[in-house]
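Chapter summary example.
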Amino acid sequence: MGVSPNSYLRLHRMQQVHRALRSGDQDAAGFAEVARRYGVRHLGRFAANYRALYGKLPSDTLRRRRGLAELTLGRPRVKFL
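The structure predicted for these 81 residues follows.
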């Protein structure tokens, strides 16, 4: 696949969390609870990688799912490593 096993697992976890945050089936209190359910240990690093991939923070995805207003001020700043 051209990706290390760790990178593959990290991406797979990120996709699982993204689906869970977007899904209306999850009865989660917040992003941290959902992320930990899928084995995420470092929430800050995960949130930064999530933003680099999806263009918004995980909490924004969860907020949108809950139907709260989303405020966007310009384009998100994304740093690719």
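To summarize the output: The longest helix spans residues 5-22.
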